């Protein structure tokens, strides 16, 4: 994989995470970044409890990190085509899930579905219909 630049983002919520293909930049929420060295943001979840004390990485932060790295690894590009955007989002979430142990994937997929619905509000209902299930 080519070099990735890590920068901080002041946007709140999921918007703090973003992959920018043109500059190969991963935006990370500022609340998760060591001010002394922003590149350390991606290793924070793996430091000791004492080292992590000042920073709070949730499971969803780990999911978002893996998802954005998925965009990078898969060579995704910016597009205004909604179908292509949704396809790239699905692929990035699938990549992220492949990085987890099987028992962690279901929880991540529930979170991923909420993210995918921001691109297409009927995404979840269509997924269940395609699988022959009904949503009540």
Could you characterize the architecture of this molecule?
- The protein has one domain.
- By secondary structure, it is mainly alpha-helical.
- Helices cover 43% and strands 10% of the residues.
- The protein has a three-stranded mixed sheet with strand order 1-3-2, covered by helices on one side.
- The mean pLDDT is 77.
- The N and C termini lie far apart (43 Å).
Keywords:
5 helices; 136 residues; mainly alpha; three-stranded mixed beta sheet
Q: Report the total helices.
A: 5
Number of domains: 1
Q: What is the H/E string?
A: EEEHHHHH
**Helical content band:** 40-55%
Strand order of the largest sheet: 1-3-2
- For the secondary structure, the number of strands is 3
Percent strand equals 5-15%
Which blocks of ≥5 consecutive residues have pLDDT under 50?
none
> How big is the Rg?
16 Å
Write down the overall geometry: globular
Largest sheet: 3 strands, mixed
Which class of secondary structure composition applies to the elements?
Answer: mainly alpha
The overall pLDDT, averaged over residues, is: 77
Q: End-to-end span in angstroms?
A: 43 Å
